[in-house]
Amino acid sequence: MSATLMIRPGLLDRIKRYSGIASDDALAGAIGVSRQTLVSVRDGKQNASAQFIAGVCRAFDMSVGEVATLARSTDDVHTDAA
Q: What is this structure's pTM?
């Protein structure tokens, strides 16, 4: 079983709304990533890197626990047929 840190669902949109940030470009700049990376992570097409999560934490004075959640996958679990 493997585990991946994922941005909490809806968090990036809430941050944008409550911070008064007008565009994805501005939010990406605050986090320190490209707009393309921001959109890919927000839309679930890309996992958030440690750099991305740290950028959100620094930019908005949040803890890792407030920003990310642990997603577990059973893809790595194999069963043997007898």
A: 0.81
Which residues are CB-contacts of 79 (< 8 A; sequence separation ≥ 6)? none
For the chain, how many structural domains are there in total? 1
- What's the CATH code of the domain at 8? 1.10.260.40
38-79 confidence digits (pLDDT tens): 999 999 899 999 999 999 999 999 999 999 998 876 554 444
Q: Is residue 81 part of a domain?
A: no
Tell which phi-psi region holds residue 32, choosing left (phi > 0), alpha (psi between -120 and 50) or beta.
left
Does some domain include residue 79? no
